Amino acid sequence: MRAIDYAEIAPLLLEWYAVSKRDLPWRENQDPYRIWLSEIMLQQTRVEAVKEYYTRFLHALPTVSSLADAPEEVLLKLWEGLGYYSRVRNMQKAAVTVMNEYGGHLPADHDALLKLSGIGPYTAAAIASIAFDIPKAAVDGNVLRIYTRLGANGKDIADPAFKKEVAQALDAVIPKDAPGAFNQAMMDLGATVCLPNGAPLCTSCPLSHLCLACHDGTQTSYPVKSKSKARTIEKMTVFLIRHDDTIILRKRSEKGLLAGMYEPLHAPGWMDEDEALTFIKELNLDPLHIERIEDAKHIFTHKEWHMIAYEVKVGFPAPEKAHHLIYATPGQISSTYPLPSAFAAYRARMGMRRRNTKNN
User: Fold this and answer.
1) Alpha helix (H) ranges present in 115-222?
2) Could you say which of 8, 39, 72, 165 is catalytic?
3) pLDDT in the model for residue 257
4) Are residues 99 and 195 part of one domain?
5) Pair (318, 249) in one structural domain
6) Which residues of the chain form beta strands (DSSP E)?
7) Does the structure show a pLDDT above 90 at 194?
């Protein structure tokens, strides 16, 4: 079988996309703000999970101006459950720049977009092509998977040089009259047909007759990706401390992991019940009842939290200022205080609705 000519894929993709494209709320128009928001939300998060967040966020902050001016706690609460909170903080920084330097309108220029906080090569190309019809290829994991399977290419997709190579190759063939449709077709093909984890639906693929991996039956051999460094494990004891109808929270530091978020009290290591009671008493709280509840695990990019937990009822409260503690009702936690998804396993016990935000 001959080597693949990537110039052949564009008309086939566009024809397929015209009848097979997904009906997604951010595709209703070419509003750059909406496209930008969707692309940031879709990083590391499933499409179905994003839809609810997208609608809620747009209702609260419908413009670049409203995003730039939003109080941090409002911003974090709207993002609560999506994780990777630096993404929305960077969005706000970029929004301030857009207000100050571009009159409140995202620039219709790929290089200018790339200079905005939190916008990398993929997002810049996605916004440029979809919102402004600029012919730049948006290369993400879906695109790399399609590209390497088409050409039976065994290069490491984690290598930035290879990503740049793929972007240049696709820039050369992206149709100048439909760059946004081309990029979205690649996104949809990777999400619905050229699936990861050894399950591509080749009989439904408009490019299968060109695909070297499909021809050889080696689809599961691609893409090739070098192993990432093993995550560190951190053991933690979490305390859901109740006083009357409130749950005790504290605010995290304004810097570092989960900066500015609110959380239930916790301590490093796994404590037995006696150690847990000592921890509570050292806060000048009066433990009336303690119960071991379910364990939980949360995976960050470079670390994992392995949590055991106790639910504790206490008598007299400690002075809030002395211990920087907040006595929040379940309603306040749901509406006001942004809680990290790291503690999602305990949402129900805090009277909050559980959200499903599993990764792609």
Assistant:
1) 121-132, 141-150, 160-171, 179-192, 212-216
2) 39
3) 86
4) yes
5) yes
6) 232-243, 246-251, 262-268, 287-299, 303-314, 325-328
7) yes
| Residue-number span of the structural domain to which 210 is assigned | 6-221
Identify the pLDDT of residue 95. 98
Stretch 253-260: mean pLDDT, rounded? 87
Kindly state the average pLDDT of the residues 27-31: 94
| One domain for residues 251 and 290 | yes
Residue 234 tokens, joined: 């951190």
Are 45 and 82 contacting, i.e. CB atoms less than 8 angstroms apart? Answer: yes
Separation between Cα atoms, residue 338 and residue 351, nearest integer Å = 14
Backbone φ, ψ for residue 270 (5° rounding)? -100, 120
Task: Give percent above pLDDT 90 in the chain.
Answer: 78
> Would you say residue 227 lies in a domain?
no
Q: Which own/partner contact pairs does 294-298 have at CB distance under 8 Å and 24+ positions apart?
A: 294/345, 296/238, 296/343, 296/344, 296/345, 296/346, 298/341, 298/342, 298/343, 298/344, 298/345
- Can 39 be counted among the known catalytic residues? yes
